[in-house]
Amino acid sequence: MTANPHTLPATPEVLISEVGPRDGLQSVKAVMPTDHKLRWITALYEAGLREIEVASFVPAKLLPQMADAAEVVRHALTLPGLTVMALVPNLRGAEAALAAGVHKLTLPVSASAAHSLANVRKTREEMIEEVRAVAALRRDTAPQVMVEVGISTAFGCTLQGEVAEDDVMRIAAQCINAGADEVGLSDTTGYANPAQVKRLFRRLRVEIGAHAGAAHMHNTRGLGLANCLAAYEEGVRTFDASLGGLGGCPYAPGASGNVVTEDLAFMFEAMGVATGLDLGKLMAAREPLRAGLPGEPIYGMTPEAGLPKGFMQKNVVQKGAHV
Ligand code: ZN
User: Fold this and answer.
1) In this structure, are residues 211 and 182 in contact, taking their beta carbons and an 8 Å threshold?
2) In Å, what is the CA distance from 247 to each residue of 33, 53, 198, 321?
3) Is there a contact between 116 and 124 (Cβ–Cβ < 8 Å)?
4) 269 has which bridge partners?
5) 114-123 — which CB contacts under 8 Å span 24+ positions?
6) Over 50: is that where the pLDDT of 178 sits?
7) What is the CATH class of 13-318?
8) Predicted confidence band at 119 (pLDDT cuts at 50, 70, 90)?
9) Which contiguous run of DSSP H or E holds residue 149?
10) What's the gap in Å between 62 CA and the centre of ligand 1?
11) Annotated catalytic, 157?
């Protein structure tokens, strides 16, 4: 696996979708100032990330961390080749996100009835109607925009405990019927294990075929990477992750929430699976994150240990990389 310094980055074999600026920033109390957000997003882009969930369009009084969503989107749109993604919980959020010019919308639909009410104060059925309304708005006003659904609590729920796999599959099919392009599975609570991940993604593909989307895994119990690998072996090629594992799980103090982008990228690159990312620049992107959120704990085993001696990334331009 010797990298040729003259080759261009290989076509990525997996897409790591960075969710830190949304999922991460909305889970911490501190508000990252807008100029820091823009600098951080630019650093993520420079590391090679080509899909970033940059904001969520929700009322600022509910989430002051996201009050600058439109401005952040405007900046992200200046980065060529970047898919600019935003989370929208409802039609009103979708209207604002489309007005800002995003390329992709993602809606959270809970598989757990209890989590749905707690998270978005809507039943699961009401959320599917929201997906239908958003998909219709997209069709009529911005047909080039993608609509994705992430099924939260797909692997278990802190409120209701076990979540029936049949519920997950039924909701996935209903979301596609309602007009969504893709449905992914999210381990919101960090309950998933690799056998379960394989089983659910296999069923998802049977249920909705090529509409099967991303794996959004959490590292709450240390199984984040194992679960991503299980999903990869089941054919999943898009993985959500957060730089520095930002977005700690409120139910497990001290534990990392989202899978750490740096560790996930290292795993794939070490396996010879091209991510399109420059690991050195990815590590460097921790600096603007730290600067924008002083004192906030950030995670990552690879950044702490460093890359193995002699480690060369597959087909990444080494010139200028800090690996
Ligand atoms: Zn998450």
Assistant:
1) yes
2) 17, 13, 25, 27
3) yes
4) none
5) 114/157, 114/159, 114/160, 115/152, 115/153, 115/157, 115/158, 115/159, 115/160, 115/188, 118/159, 119/152, 120/89, 120/90
6) yes
7) alpha beta
8) confident
9) strand 146-152
10) 18
11) no
Per-domain residue ranges for the chain? 13-318
* pTM for this model (two decimals): 0.93
Considering the candidates 157, 175, 228, 249, report the single residue annotated as catalytic: 249
Q: 320 CA distance to ligand 1 centroid (A)?
A: 31
Nearest to 85 by CA among 178, 230, 216, 190: 216
70-100 residue pLDDT tens = 999 999 999 999 999 999 999 999 999 999 9
86: helix, coil or strand? strand
Q: In the block, which residue shows the tokens 């009050």?
A: 67
Q: How many residues does the chain have?
A: 323
Distance 89 CA to ligand 1 centre (A): 15
Q: State in Å: Cα 224 to ligand 1 middle.
A: 11
Q: What backbone torsions phi and psi does residue 265 show, to the nearest 5 degrees?
A: -65, -40
The two beta strands, 212-216 and 51-56, are unpaired
Query: How far, in Å, is the centroid of ligand 1 from the Cα of 78?
Result: 26
Q: What is the model's pLDDT at position 322?
A: 44
Per DSSP, helices labelled H in the chain are: 25-27, 34-46, 69-76, 91-100, 113-120, 124-141, 165-177, 194-208, 224-233, 261-271, 279-284, 286-292, 301-305
Helix axes 113-120, 124-141, angle to 10 degrees: 60
- Do 121 and 161 meet the contact criterion of CB atoms below 8 Å apart? no
Phi and psi based region of residue 215 (left: phi greater than 0; alpha: psi -120 to 50; beta: remaining) = beta
